[in-house]
Amino acid sequence: MNGQALGSSRATPLASGSLSREGVPAVEVRDLTKEFGAAAALDNVSLAIQPGEFFSLLGPSGCGKTTLMRIIGGFESPSSGEVRIGGSVVTHEPPYRRSTNMIFQHFALFPHLSVAKNIAFGLEVKSVRPNIIEQKVKEALSLVRMEEYGERSIETLSGGQKQRVAIARALVNEPEVLLLDEPLGALDLQLRLQMQAELRRLHRATGNTFVFVTHDQGEAITLSDRIAVMKGGRVLQVGTPKEIYESPQTRFVAEFMGHANFLTGRLTRIANGRCAVEVNDVQIECRTNPDVALDNDATVMLRYEKLHVSVREGGSVDAFDGILTSKLYMGASIRLGLELANGIALFADLPSTHSSGRLSVGAPVRAHWVNDDAIVLND
């Protein structure tokens, strides 16, 4: 163990990296399938998570994300496929023989033990020398900013403090990979936001690989280096938060990641990553995903905040002119509903600071957007 303090902004002794080899994923699953009777919780899933990444598994309840997490941690066995940690095959190894540690939504702390004793528990099971345990517990408490809480009873702590103790208990064992199964799910909104910032700080401070399960899109976007969006036991798309949000490949991913307008038409031109889609006899220019074919039916996605609306002053009505049908104040934004002259209904989100006084319900308006903000989906 080196002498670097756990609270440092650089990698700490809690992130020993002993299993990491250059070019080798921290976690890799290959063709993973998990069946419960006739139901497939995972269907041929393959993923590679790089050392030091904050990687999120995102999807609705029942999509397989927790099952995948439990298989990585060794708490479930796959029906077929392979799991590798730091390049070593661990598919059939028990949890205690993997360089992973898991944090659950409900903390799983021992209420009869003090904070320090909870953190020390795993080290004591491994028969680590008492003086080393004392030092590591002290460093772990410092890392989660709870230096003064070592002798406190678990039952006297708030939800956020309990979560920090659970994280310290996991990190003190120096796992290569920290598995977090919806760890913020039991916290109220304000505490969740505080703990999101805390998790990012801890990730930077330790340099560990974090694998995070959540169904909260905002949480995944805020925390992650990369996200895997799951549905029905499959991974639909993997990418950075920006890629997943701005360039979804399917309608499910687009809808799950935020509000969007969807226009249905036919592809009439594809060239150099751009295309034209005919919607109600109107040509719309936009970006295209790979693997879409000319003359196929197409779905065009346009995020609410990418649609610009202005008062129409004179001129003939064209495809993007219409009437404002609704206006809803939403705090940070104002949501406008429009019905265009060609019968298409659209929504737009404007900042609440926008001078929208002239945009009153019933007013003639013009809708416009940057071509690259509209994208054809693979559906």
Whole-number total of structural domains: 2
Class by alpha and beta content = alpha+beta
CATH C-level name of the largest domain: Alpha Beta
CATH topology of the largest domain: Rossmann fold
Separation of the first and last Cα atoms: 52 Å
Alpha carbon gyration radius: 25 Å
Helical coverage, percent range: 10-25%
Beta strand count: 20
Order of H and E elements: EEEHEEEHHHEHEHEEHHEEEEEEEEEE
Describe what you observe in this structure.
By secondary structure, the chain is α+β, with helices and mostly antiparallel strands. The protein folds into 2 domains: 27-246, P-loop containing nucleotide triphosphate hydrolases (Rossmann fold); 259-376, Beta Barrel (OB fold (Dihydrolipoamide Acetyltransferase, E2P)). Helix content is 22%, strand content 34%. It is built from 8 helices and 20 strands. The strands form 4 sheets. Strands 6-7-8-3-9-10 form a 6-stranded mixed beta sheet, with helices on both faces. A hairpin with a 4-residue loop joins strand 17 and strand 18. Helix 2 crosses helix 3. The termini are far apart.
